[in-house]
Amino acid sequence: MIRRRRLVVAGAAALVAVVALLLGGALATSPAASPDAPAAAPVRALAGFGLAGGGTAGLVSRLEVKIQRNPRDVKSLATLGLAYEQRWRETGDSSFLPLAAHALRNARQLSPNDALTIQGLGSLALTRHEFGRGLVLGRLAIQLAPYSSNPYGIEGDALLELGRYPQAFAAFQKMVDLKPNLSSYARVSYARELSGDLPGAITAMRMALDAAAGDREGYAWASVQLGKLYWMRGDGRAAKRLYGNALQIFPGYVYALDALVPVEAARGHFRRAIALEKRAVDAIPLPQFVGQLGDLYVRAGQPRLALEQQATVRVIQRLLGVNGVKVDLETAIYRADHSLDPAGTISLARKARALRPSILGDDTLAWALARGGHCAEALPWSTRALRLGTHDSLFYFHRGTIEQCLGSTAAARTWFARALALNPNFSVRFAPIARRSVS
């Protein structure tokens, strides 16, 4: 049972370290996948870690030169593919993904059963939200390297997004049995979170944090994920302390900056919250960062700036699509949140849910249907989204909205109250609505 991440690479150890970096790391979805979305585990995973500064860029340059000299160097090609993936995670520039695909496919043509190449292709498939392909590649990687923990992470992450939870949790258990480390403990944490066991999730993430000792960026990543678990249950003080720890050990860490934003907004510090989010956006323009900045501008009474952020999100999502990342689900969530094109959003959510039949896919379809006025149809999808017992304020808020739409006032108030009881400041955009509905 579990969550996700990535490890730090350096200099001459690159060939081994990059594997740990990307394959032992969180194979979440992409920056487009809204890592910070409530149940979007995938979406948190992306926020993985890698080389600080220009480390990965330097590695890419060295590998490109090496391959120019010897285009048949399979290990260097595979490692270059992984390094390109990491550059995308570090920069948010999705044009690195086609480069990764090219390098990895060349490596596979030269050596069809190279374990590193297959794992790299599996990682890339998950990044692009091609979860069926990721599952096939993960299982092939297991056959090629049955005693390595990394392939089980690929398999488990794919199964998770396909809604096959018992199998996913079994894969994660195998992973942690083979190698209890940052990657496997984090996945254990996420599986417990999905299953409604927040205390157990916190315990496992603390173990991930301990396992990250000596890995500066890995420690910062785990600190942020642990902080988010505390934030989920409304403990802003603990969350802020952990985000601060992340920034202390890894100054400027964008995922910590972004995570601090709702904590500051909850205190009414909108000017500081906006400044933090702008720093995150300027560093890596991820859709979830830009979207939250837009919500802050709405709360701050600056609608023109909020609309500018909406336009920016659309541009980023288009670029991700051009570079092979399937962002239907993330786009549907964003559109539903902002009541954009209800009919088109429902169609997009149906398509996304068919490809990703997870609880997030179920909730996204329920939310899109509710925002489009199809609340009777939305209700069973919301029920399905809650089938694991996941404690998620946004899921509860969506259910409350559906009940309200159906005229079930008492039920709506109950669900809104549950969302607020878990975290009274669960969303910059929607928590105020929930508070008005129960007052």
What does this structure look like?
The protein has 2 domains: 11-318, Tetratricopeptide repeat domain (Serine Threonine Protein Phosphatase 5, Tetratricopeptide repeat, Alpha Horseshoe), CATH 1.25.40.10; 327-438, Tetratricopeptide repeat domain (Serine Threonine Protein Phosphatase 5, Tetratricopeptide repeat). 72% of the residues lie in helices and 0% in strands. It has 24 helices and no strands. 60% of the residues are buried.
Query: Span between N and C termini?
Result: 39 Å
Q: Hey, roughly how much beta strand do the residues contain?
A: under 5%
**CA-based gyration radius:** 21 Å
CATH architecture name of the largest domain? Alpha Horseshoe
**What is the string of SSEs from the N terminus onward?**
HHHHHHHHHHHHHHHHHHHHHHHH
Number of domains: 2
SS-based structural class? mainly alpha
Give the helix tally: 24
Number of strands: 0
Helicity range of the residues?
Answer: over 70%
